[in-house]
Each structure stands twice: as structure tokens, then as C-alpha cells.
Amino acid sequence: MDRIQLADFLRSRREALQPEDVGLPRGPRRRTGGLRREEIAQLCGMSTDYWSRLEQQRGPQPSEQMLGAIARGLHLSVDERAHLFRLAGHAAPEAARAWDHVSPGVQRILDRLGDTPAMVLNDLGETLVQTPLARALLGDHSGYTGLSKVNVYRWYADPATRDVYPRDDQPEHGAVFTAELRSAYSTPATRARATAVVDALLASSPEFAEVWARHDVRLKHPRHKRFAHPEVGELELDCQTLVDPESGQTLLVFTATPGSPSAEKLALLAVIGARSFA
């Protein structure tokens, strides 16, 4: 671990990132450009003290998971992310693993959606990052590891995760998730990762085997979705999808019709979520 170079790199990237780049107001009292330490620490999901120690060359060696969060918070490119890993004493992620790094352009859009449920998925259906309101609506996906990071795997391996949708809607969602997995299974870039999911589910879930045998392709999620939340009840939201053709990542944005009961519930959920995270 090269503490000196790591500290310099983090400081330079923090100072190069402007408040407007991450959806923050500049404010009249900001004397210099760039983000403050407390701002970048919040974006990276760490304490200000932890970030400060890294910049002061006295912090612990960050884990690979922490480095991934730093790369997203700083809006690093794939090459800059690899450099960050090497400075921190880790092997640079293989180019083939670029699927788990949110592209800077997509991250900038997400930063401007802080008060909206939004999330970024890779081409296998793994959640890469969520806004706070998306976590409040759908649950926090950051703690999943291994195959459980893949949405369709959780759908069959842990059926309780389906409860975010009303029971009547679950068969349709399950069919679409399975069709999306089949698309990944037939695509060279995702075949190896998708094969691991398929093999595991065929060995453990008769329900998956039955749906998989249908060979459904190109099924689409409904744009208008219903969600079942244990605290605010049922919400009806529209889902807009933005696909980055270069990375294959998908940005999902959920919105409610202004003035509707679902809009009121979403506003209440924002308050409940903020208290929960605090």
C-alpha cells in the first residue's frame, strides 16, 4: 500500500469533483472548488474521520469493497479505479469485472436523483448502487454476497424477497426475471456468470426449473408497477429505464403521479427512511 500516493490521488480527485457534479448546492460560503471531506465521505458511505485519515496517510488499508465505494463516490473511470486499487495494495480488478463499476455518467445522473427511488443494475441484475429512497422502498441490497447479489437468484432461493411486490403480481415478475437471465445466459459477455446462477438454481429450485424450461425470451417488466411496503402500504409507481450501451448498466427510476395517494406515501417513506438510516 502506497500511503503517500494514495493520499495524493484521493485528495486530487476530491478537489476536482465539483458540488454540481454530485447534485449538491455550491452555497455562498464555499471558498474553494471541489468537495469537502465530509461531503465525499457521505457519498462513499464512510465516516469523515476515515476519509481524513486516508488523506493524511495514516488510515488502514481499505478493503476491496471500500475501494469500490470510493471509486463510485469519486466518479472514477475504469482505469482510475484500477489505479486506486493498486495504490491501496490490491490487485486491479480484471477488465472483465467492469460490470460492477458504475460509469461516471450514470453516477452523475443518480446523484441528482437523491430524493427519488432510483438504482443501477449491471447486465446480470446485480444492484450496484441505490438512492436512499430506493433502499427504503425495496430494501438495502448492499449486504448481499456471492450469487445472492443477483436479483433472480434471490427470487428463487429466498422467496421472502418477493414480498416487495403484491402477491398477484409476483408470477409476472418472476417470469420476466427468468427471461432476463436467459438473455444473459445466451450473451457471450455474461454467459459464464449467468451459467453459475442457472446451475445453482436448477440444482435447488424446482420452481425455477419449471419456469426456465419455458424458454421465454424478451419478456418485459410492466412500466407501471405496484409495490407492497410494510409501513406505508401499496404504492403504484412508474418505472423509467435508462440503459448505458457501453457498460450495459441499467438505471431504474421510480416516480409517482403528482398529487396521487402513492406520491403521498412516497413522501412519507422518505421521512421514515431518513429516520431509519439515522
Fold and architecture overview:
InterPro entries: Cro/C1-type_HTH (IPR001387), Lambda_DNA-bd_dom_sf (IPR010982), MLTR_LBD (IPR041413). It comes from Schumannella soli. This is Helix-turn-helix domain-containing protein. The protein is of the alpha+beta class and 278 residues long. It has 2 domains: 3-93, lambda repressor-like DNA-binding domains (434 Repressor (Amino-terminal Domain)), CATH 1.10.260; 105-277, Beta-Lactamase (2-Layer Sandwich). Helix content is 45%, strand content 11%. It contains 12 helices and 5 strands. The chain has helices at residues 3-16, 37-44, 48-55, 64-73, 78-87, 104-111, 132-138, 151-157, 170-185, 191-204, 206-212, 261-277, and strands spanning 118-121, 127-130, 224-229, 233-243, 250-255. The protein has a 5-stranded antiparallel beta sheet with strand order 2-1-5-4-3. A hairpin with a 6-residue loop joins strand 4 and strand 5 (250-255). Helix 2 packs across helix 3 (48-55), helix 4 (64-73) crosses helix 5 and helix 9 (170-185) crosses helix 10 (191-204). The longest helix has 17 residues, at 261-277. It starts with a helix and ends with a helix. The mean pLDDT is 86.
Q: What brief labels describe this structure?
A:
11% strand; alpha+beta; Cro/C1-type_HTH; 2 domains; single chain; 278 residues; five-stranded antiparallel β-sheet; 434 Repressor (Amino-terminal Domain); Beta-Lactamase
